[in-house]
Amino acid sequence: MSHVAVDNVHGLEQQLAVLDLAAADGPGGGSGRRYIPPHLRNNEVFQNDGVGGWDAGRNTFVNGYHDNRLNGAQSFNRGPPRMERGRGGIGGGGYRGNRGGAFNPINAINPMQPMAFGGYENKDAGGWNAPKEPYGSFANNRGKSAFFNDRGGNANRGRFDHWAKQTPPNERLEHELFSGSNTGINFEKYDDIPVEATGQNVPHHIDSFQDIEMGDIVMSNINLTRYTRPTPVQKYAIPIIKTKRDLMACSGKTAAFLLPILSQIFVEGPGEALAAAKASGQDNGKYGRRKQFPISLVLAPTRELALQIYDEARKFSYRSRVRPCVVYGGADIGQQIRELERGCHLLVATPGRLVDMMERGKIGLDFCTYLVLDEADRMLDMGFEPQIRRIVEQDSMPPKGLRQTMMFSILARDFLEDYIFLAVGRVGSTSENITQKVVWVEESDKRSFLLDLLNATGKDSLTLVFVETKKGADALEDFLYREGYACTSIHGDRSQRDREEALSQFRSGRCPILVATAVAARGLDISNVKHVINFDLPSDIEEYVHRIGRTGRVGNLGLATSFFNDKNGNITKDLLDILVEAKQEVPSWLESLAYEHQHKSTTRGRSKRFSGGFGARDYRQTSATNNPGGFGGRGGRNQSVHGGNRGFGGGGGFGNFYSGDGYGGNYSHSQVDWWGN
DNA sequence: AAAAAAG
């Protein structure tokens, strides 16, 4: 049980200190001279249309949600969601509420600053624009009273400020949540990671968690998790999200979005969502009781990842009134429904189960103003597009611009509005803290080669073995088991219970060898994986990068060994690129193979997802065209720009994204996978 | 010739 003194002295001065107020042309500025990456150019915000998004409907807010749901077409009339209200800044508009205002020089002042003038004099804007920062010095009372006045006398509304107060500690829960600590993290490595943010009015990044006011609850939980300093993504993402901007980032640690979202929820309270949930509780509809209206939704591609995010959310919402929930397939839905019914403010979900829940009337997204798509590219690859559109666009979720959307991948800008693009160099993928080895191993030799590797590995270090098929995973696990190794496996044909059991046995070290399919490649954060073995190489380089990213986490050293043979021709070139980029040893045979392969294959098609209307192609085509400055391109080398998660070379800056030598030659990724998809 | 996710 630890007590954390949160030093509120940091408030405004600290924030001002980190703001680059003087530099209108700097990262915080909005000068027209600033480079606007092509993927942002068509954004309506830059077209100065001066039409205020929901302004038209602003006065028609009717202090309730029932009305809105009946006339779905007029969703703008439901009144601005929470995030719009405090949008403040000076000069009234607030960033999104006044699109033309993006070019107003006054907005060059960083919106992160909790300014309290502006919204007040404007009667019309009053309630929404008045900051309600309980932490911001002078914003306090005025902001709140304006808020209350505007809302009328709904009793529920008045309670929101309690959400910023810590609830009493619970020793047992605290131990459960925080005892598995992260140890041995080499944070120094982080400081080398380059980050580039593009977009209008990019808030200044923070250098420590104390640099931005996140409130007692969040700060206390940060301390309990022993996160000493923010990762590069967090340094940038936290202020961006706190200033209510949409965000697209190549990679993200869960905390990069959870911390600022929770912090905002604590500040702003449940708003309509609470009222709606309460009303729903009294309304025994067709499907029974209680529809929940989460304030924030996090979508993830795999069940295990959803679970992991949920676990993090539980930590960061400890001692608060926010109740996180998770829903995913393969588990008892009744149990999940009962959990939901106990209250759900932040929902983590896999798409399929969420749609199910929505259809059962258990979840309403009407007041979901924070949407996170984790591993969005992966979800689209996996064919979740219809379900995601169903969730995001074809139901009651506030439209973009009225909600805040954070996406960790570079696809699907359909869902974003006036966003900031964060390009973050990777830690622990192709960076130098992973030693990547590629060895030529014929199919028939793989097993014995694997045994050699396992024998050479220390008994207590974790080894993750990737195979390409579920069948292959079972077979290899059997084999290893018969050979006397403590191992387990995870793949999509195993029951959810077995999957979770396998993961926990692996994590705990009871089974230090895990044989896995792609299900375990992304996002899973298992500390202490010393060795990733690609028993079968994937056909997609992105998948490769994610797999090896399971080792060398958070600055630790890791080893990745890949078995290569003539079945892996399709990945040769990209693999070579990755090795070079990460300054790894390149076997000479791989180099010559890549050369041959390049001259063999002539026309390459595009994979499905490039034609999916998500703007992905636009981005990819253009992303390599310009170097926004500061991170010199590498010129000459033909880097693949494929895949948002292929950040930037370990120490090499931003070469492969903004190669500076034009689009054409950079587009080298094999667009057709092994199965011609 | 596959994996993932709803059941």
From TrEMBL:
A motif (Q motif) lies at residues 207-235. This is RNA helicase. Coiled coil: none annotated. Belongs to the DEAD box helicase family. DDX3/DED1 subfamily. Pfam families: DEAD (PF00270), Helicase_C (PF00271). InterPro entries: DEAD/DEAH_box_helicase_dom, Helicase_ATP-bd, Helicase_C-like, P-loop_NTPase, RNA-helicase_DEAD-box_CS, RNA_helicase_DEAD_Q_motif. It comes from Muraenolepis orangiensis (Patagonian moray cod). Residues 600-646 are annotated as: Disordered. The keyword Hydrolase applies.
